[in-house]
Amino acid sequence: MSAAAANPLDVQASALERKPDQPQKRENKQYGLKFVGAAISNMTASGVSNPQDIIKVRQQLQRQIPGAGANSFWVVGGKMLRTEGVTSLMGGFTASMLRELVYSGLRLGSYEFFKDKYYSASKGALTREGLALKVMAATTAATIGASIANPADVIKVRMQAYYPKGRPYRNTAHAFASVFREGSAGKIGTFASVQGGLKSLYRGVEATTVRGIVLSTSQICSYDHIKQMLKRGGVMQEGLGLHLTASLFAGLFCSITSNPVDVVKVRLMTDKHRQLNGVLHCIKEILVHEGPLAFYKGFGMCWGRLGTHTIVSFLTFERIRLLLGIDPM
User: Fold this and answer.
1) What is the number of other CB atoms lying within 10 angstroms of the CB of residue 1?
2) What is the CATH number of domain 27-324?
3) Where is this region: Disordered (predicted)?
C-alpha cells in the first residue's frame, strides 16, 4: 500500500522536475517549424519567379557594351522562347528547389533563433527595436545558409546558362556529377580528386556568401524593421496589408544592394575554363572590359524576380506561421 501510495507522488515529483525543460522544448520545436515554414515559403516563391531568374542569369552572362539593347530582358526572354521553347524558362528548377530548401530554410528559418540568442547574450544591450541585433542575426544565418548551399547554387546557375551547342546536362544529378568531375579530372580515385571535385562545387562560395549576407540583411532586416515601425507608429496593424507593404520595400532594397554581387557570383560559377582567378579578378575584368554599369546588368529582371520572390515568400511564411500557431515575424 505504501509503495502504491508513494507512486503518484513520485510521478508528480518527476513531472515537476521535467517542467523547466518544457518551455525550452516548445521553443526548439518552434525554431524547427520556422525552418520548415521558411523553406516551404521560399521554395514556393522560387517556383513562381524561376522564369525571371533564368532571364536575369542570361543577362548577367552577357559580355557586351553596357546598355546595349540586345541585353534587355524582353529581348533575352523572347529569344529563349523562340530558340529553346517555353520549357527553357524553368531551367534549373530542381536545383533551385534544393538550394532554397537549404539556403533560405537556414537564412530565414534561423534568423529569429540567432536574434533571440544574441539578444540574450547581450543582456538587453542590443534592443529588439534596433537594427544592430537584426543585422547580426541575418548575417550569421545567411553566412551559414549560403556557404552550405553553394553546390546547389552552382548547379542552378550552370543549368540556367545558355549553351549554343545544346545543354551539356541531362538532369540535376548529371550536372552535379559533371561539375564534380571538372575539378577531379586526371586524379580519379585519389584524395586530390575528391578535394578538386568539392572545390569545383564550391566555386564562387565567397561571392555567394557575400551576396547572401547583403541580400539577407537588406531583405529580412528591412522587412522586420519596417513592420516594427509601421506597427509601433500605429500606421498599420498586423495582417496582410502590413505584410505586403513591408515585403514591397524589402524587395526593392535587396535588389539594389545584391545585384552587383550577383553578377560576380554568376560569372564565377559559370567560369568552366577558369579564366577568372577569384572575386577581385572578376570585379577587375568587369570594370576594365564592360564598365561599372555592368554590375547592374539584369537589374530590371533582378528586381522583378527578387521583388516577386520577396513578396511571395514573406506572405507565405506569415501564413504558414499562422496555421502552425506561431506568432507573426
Assistant:
1) 5
2) 1.50.40.10
3) 1-28
The whole-number pLDDT of residue 74 equals 80
Give the separation between CA 75 and CA 178, rounded to whole angstroms: 30
Instruction: Give pTM, 2 decimals.
Output: 0.79
Provide the residue type at 272 as one letter.
Answer: K
What's the DSSP call for residue 67? T
- In three state form, how does the secondary structure of 271-328 look? CCCCCCCCHHHHHHHHHHHHCHHHHHCCHHHHHHHHHHHHHHHHHHHHHHHHHHCCCC
Q: How far apart are CA 298 and CA 305, in angstroms?
A: 10
- Return all residues near 19 (Cβ < 8 A) that are at least 6 apart: none
What are the residue ranges of helices labelled H in the chain?
2-18, 21-60, 73-84, 93-109, 111-122, 131-160, 172-184, 191-201, 205-232, 240-269, 279-290, 299-324
**What would the grid cell of residue 257 be?**
544592394
Averages of pLDDT over each 10 residues, the chain, 329 residues: 49 49 82 95 92 84 57 80 88 92 95 96 91 96 95 92 86 92 75 86 90 92 95 94 96 91 87 86 93 88 87 96 93
- The domain segmentation of the chain, as residue ranges, is 27-324
Distance CA 325, CA 216 (A): 25
Q: How far, in Å, CA of 313 to CA of 255, rounded?
A: 15
Given this model, what pLDDT does residue 65 score?
47
Separation of alpha carbons 6 and 230, rounded Å:
57
Residues contacting 152, CB < 8 A, separation 6+: 95, 98, 99, 102, 103
